[in-house]
């Protein structure tokens, strides 16, 4: 029997020494009666564990009052350990699990989230994430465009001009179906009723098994205003050119025709005129030619000269 107990204890210790968690047994007086190999790797001398871990209070309450604790964090030499204290009938047990990789991954994730949040919040474009039509995220630029401090609980259509609601819904449906969705021009309306012209690109993402649509929104209001001003300017320029063309046509009609008639009658009169009258008609003919030359310059060059 003694041999059997010895073999069982050796077997038990071999198991405990090869598990990845650190284990310490205390008796009722707080004396360490067993520590496995992992504990020795983690702390070296477990007698100083209370001081090194900063968990003196928890250990004292565990040993003296049987107060259990869970997931107490302890950092040592750049490694992180989750420590559980469990009361037992004849003492207590501490279990130490190395959670460093998990902590590193969580910290890396938090850092990435921080960087992405900085990027999205400082982006010159509005960024919105939709679950269905519901806004589950909106960056600073989008909130500035629509004039709201928060978009929680709102649908994207709450910010869209009534004339563009059908279009944005169609584009969202196409994106959710995985279709290639070209950008579209959508009018957004802020809380004061001011309209902003925007160019929106939609893309589908899968996050934690859910389909979500990301909207990348460029405010093109100034560009749209410039295009409208340019269009108005072009229309005015076209009107000016048309007026000039009509002016030239009117000059041709109201000046050249009478001048041609006058020249014709003068030429006919010259054939039968007396010398004195002929001299006067030639002076008149020269004057008419000068007027005709001036009119031609006005029509052809827009300048008045002979």
Concise description?
With 306 residues, this protein is of the alpha+beta class. It folds into 3 domains: 2-103, Beta-Lactamase (2-Layer Sandwich), CATH 3.30.450; 123-219, Beta-Lactamase, CATH 3.30.450.20; 239-301.
Can you describe what's shown?
The protein has nine helices and ten strands. By secondary structure, it is of the alpha+beta class. The protein has three domains: 2-103, PAS domain (Beta-Lactamase, 2-Layer Sandwich); 123-219, PAS domain (Beta-Lactamase); 239-301. A five-stranded antiparallel β-sheet has the order 2-1-5-4-3, sandwiched between helices. The protein is 52% helix and 25% strand. It is rod-shaped. The N and C termini lie far apart (139 Å). The protein has helices at 2-17, 37-43, 49-53, 56-65, 100-121, 140-146, 165-176, 221-272, 275-301, and strands at 22-27, 32-35, 69-76, 79-88, 91-98, 126-131, 134-138, 184-189, 195-207, 210-219.
CATH class placement of the largest domain: Alpha Beta
Count of discrete alpha- or pi-helical segments spanning 4 or more residues: 9
Unreliable stretches (pLDDT < 50, length at least 5) are none
Ends distance: 139 Å
- Order of neighbouring strands in the sheet with most strands: 2-1-5-4-3
Return the average pLDDT rounded to an integer: 84
Number of domains: 3
What attributes does this structure have?
5-stranded antiparallel sheet, Beta-Lactamase, alpha+beta
Give the helix/strand layout.
Blueprint: H1 2-17, E1 22-27, E2 32-35, H2 37-43, H3 49-53, H4 56-65, E3 69-76, E4 79-88, E5 91-98, H5 100-121, E6 126-131, E7 134-138, H6 140-146, H7 165-176, E8 184-189, E9 195-207, E10 210-219, H8 221-272, H9 275-301
Antiparallel strand pairs: 1-2, 1-5, 3-4, 4-5, 6-7, 6-10, 8-9, 9-10
Helix pairs in contact: 8-9
């Amino acid at each position: 029997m003694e041999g059997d107990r010895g073999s069982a204890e050796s077997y038990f210790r071999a198991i405990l020494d090869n598990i990845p968690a650190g284990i310490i047994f205390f008796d009722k007086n707080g004396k360490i009666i067993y520590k496995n190999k992992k504990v020795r790797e983690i702390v070296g001398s477990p007698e100083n564990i209370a001081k090194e871990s900063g968990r003196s209070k928890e250990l004292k309450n565990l040993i003296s009052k049987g107060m259990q604790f869970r997931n107490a964090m302890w950092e040592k030499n750049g490694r992180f350990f989750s420590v559980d204290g469990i009361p037992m009938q004849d003492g207590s047990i501490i279990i130490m699990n190395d959670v460093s990789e998990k902590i590193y991954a969580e910290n890396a994730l938090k850092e990435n989230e921080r960087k992405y949040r900085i990027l999205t919040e400082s982006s010159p474009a509005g960024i919105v994430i939709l679950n269905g039509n519901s806004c589950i995220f909106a960056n600073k630029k989008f909130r500035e465009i629509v004039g709201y401090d928060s978009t929680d609980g709102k649908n994207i259509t709450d910010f869209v001009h009534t004339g563009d609601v059908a279009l944005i819904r169609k584009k969202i449906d196409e994106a959710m179906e995985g279709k290639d969705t070209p950008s579209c021009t959508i009018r957004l309306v802020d809380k004061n009723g001011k309209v902003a012209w925007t160019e929106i690109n939609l893309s589908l993402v899968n996050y934690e098994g859910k389909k979500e649509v990301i909207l990348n929104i460029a405010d093109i209001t100034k560009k749209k205003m410039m295009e409208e001003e340019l269009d108005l300017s072009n229309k005015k320029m076209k009107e000016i050119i048309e007026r000039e063309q009509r002016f030239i046509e009117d000059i041709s009609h109201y000046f050249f025709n009478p001048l041609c008639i006058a020249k014709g009658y003068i030429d006919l009169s010259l054939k039968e005129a007396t010398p004195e009258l002929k001299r006067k008609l030639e002076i008149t003919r020269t004057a008419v030619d000068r007027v005709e030359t001036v009119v031609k310059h006005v029509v052809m060059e827009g300048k008045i000269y002979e």
